[in-house]
């Protein structure tokens, strides 16, 4: 740890790997499953749980015992909120100092340079926020799930509450939530938990701070209007999230209606919300039209928001990429959003994340198609995007992939969870150029 070459990114990757391999060993135990689990399936399931993806190669409620399901639930919780978050929270609880490398890594993950927020305060908020929503979700699920056995209903409620908030998509039902496709309460509870867990902890912290200041600050009313103004990041995340949910709902409902499939507005809304990273489904994915699958794939590719349990390239990244299309208005000098100029570093990072995600998905599709040539390309593409976006929606081909294809999907899930910036910070050299190099033009477009 004293080696200067070990950074927060290394610690993050190592902690996820240790958690995955620990989960794999636990799931391989004889009493974790009813019929035994292969090493590849145990690795795949552990990775899917830690990376809060939800893709499965075995039927979770049928294959695994309660012990195995609890292992998956713990992996989801630690992977979704972040094992480093829990570790750092315990360190702060005992008034100990967090190592500098860990502090820098967590500040980069959650705070994104927000210097006016204390890391310890944000971490305490994350823990409180998480358990408030998960406990509330458990209570509401307990009141709405159709299970006569009270213990079973409580267990299912806890499992789905944690899985939904962490955007994992694992379910104790073999058909996910399809049996509740017409249950408005279950749909709304699940969607609220998904959005709460995927909108980003920094965003929710800012919303909480603004509302607290609005209702409890006794300064002059003329200054209260400042509390209606969010930071650019929070504003961008909220606007993009609303646009994606509404547009996804309209597209899914319209396309399926034109295709002759019976998909209600509630099902379309639920699928629009869950497709961005959660992975639950109330409709049979394999029965959807190819156009709808492409729409869902686009939502999975974008994913949730930074500093959350969600995956994908993130809503803010997508917004920056879209904003780059309008750079021509100022002669391609700067990216401007809401009368604010974005730092070039931010623009380059967004572009890098977009390209990296596209390349990873491309190679995943190519390799899986090579080892499983009988699978349809649209299904392989859907599965690959779902893996990288840590979503978990599937057309049903995952359990029938070859062992090597399962390993490829496993690697894709891991890359999607730890993020492009983390991978590049490990691979690329940190050395700066000694001086400014000469410029030379290339033809574009």
Number of helices: 18
What strand order characterises the main sheet? 1-2
Radius of gyration in whole Å, from Cα?
A: 22 Å
What is the overall silhouette? globular
Tell me the total number of β-strands.
2
Order of helices and strands: HHHHHHHHHHHHHHEEHHHH
Largest sheet entry: 2 strands, antiparallel
**In percent, how helical is the residue content?**
55-70%
Task: Determine the strand fraction and express it as a percent band.
Answer: under 5%
**SS-based structural class?**
mainly alpha
User: What's the N-to-C terminus distance?
Assistant: 47 Å
**pLDDT averaged residue by residue:** 85
Unreliably modeled segments: none
Q: Can you put this structure into words, describing what you see?
A:
With 445 residues, the protein is mainly α. The chain has 18 helices and 2 strands. It has a two-stranded antiparallel sheet with strand order 1-2. It is globular and about 65 Å long. The N and C termini lie far apart (47 Å).
């Amino acid at each position: 740890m004293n080696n200067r070459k070990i950074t927060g990114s290394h610690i993050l990757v190592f902690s996820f790997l240790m958690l995955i391999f620990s989960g794999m060993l636990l799931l391989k135990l004889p009493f974790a499953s009813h019929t035994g689990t292969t090493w590849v399936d145990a690795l795949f399931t552990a990775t899917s749980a830690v990376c809060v993806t939800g893709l499965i190669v075995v039927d979770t409620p049928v294959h695994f015992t309660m012990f195995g399901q609890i292992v998956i639930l713990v992996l989801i919780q630690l992977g979704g909120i972040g094992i480093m978050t829990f570790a750092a929270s315990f360190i702060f609880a005992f008034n100990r100092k967090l190592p500098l490398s860990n502090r820098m890594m967590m500040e980069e993950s959650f705070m994104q340079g927000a210097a006016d927020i204390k890391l310890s305060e944000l971490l305490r908020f994350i823990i409180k926020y998480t358990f408030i929503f998960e406990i509330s979700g458990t209570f509401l699920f307990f009141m709405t799930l159709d299970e006569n056995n009270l213990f079973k209903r409580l267990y299912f409620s806890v499992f789905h509450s944690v899985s939904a908030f962490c955007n994992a998509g694992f379910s104790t039902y073999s058909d996910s939530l399809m049996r509740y496709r017409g249950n408005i309460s279950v749909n709304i509870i699940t969607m609220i938990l998904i959005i709460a867990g995927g909108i980003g902890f920094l965003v929710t912290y800012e919303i909480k701070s603004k509302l607290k200041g609005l209702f409890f600050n006794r300064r002059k009313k003329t200054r209260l209007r400042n509390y209606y103004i969010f930071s650019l990041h929070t504003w961008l995340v909220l606007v993009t999230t609303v646009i994606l949910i509404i547009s996804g709902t309209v597209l899914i409902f319209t396309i399926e209606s034109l295709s002759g499939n019976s998909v209600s507005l509630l099902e379309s809304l639920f699928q629009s919300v869950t497709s961005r990273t959660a992975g639950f489904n109330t409709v049979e994915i394999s029965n959807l039209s190819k156009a709808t699958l492409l729409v869902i794939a686009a939502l999975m590719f974008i994913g949730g928001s930074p500093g959350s349990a969600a995956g994908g390239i993130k809503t803010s990244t997508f917004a920056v990429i879209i904003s780059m299309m309008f750079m021509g208005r100022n002669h391609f000098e700067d990216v401007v959003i809401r009368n604010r100029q974005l730092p070039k570093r931010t623009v380059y990072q967004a572009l890098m994340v977009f390209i990296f995600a596209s390349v990873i998905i491309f190679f995943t599709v190519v390799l899986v198609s090579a080892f499983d040539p009988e699978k349809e390309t649209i299904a392989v593409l859907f599965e690959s995007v779902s893996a990288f976006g840590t979503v978990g929606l599937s057309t049903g081909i995952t359990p029938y992939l070859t062992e090597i294809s399962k390993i490829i999907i496993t690697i894709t899930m891991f890359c999607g969870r730890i993020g492009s910036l983390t991978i590049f910070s490990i691979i690329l050299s940190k050395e700066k150029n000694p001086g400014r190099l000469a410029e030379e033009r290339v033809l574009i477009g």
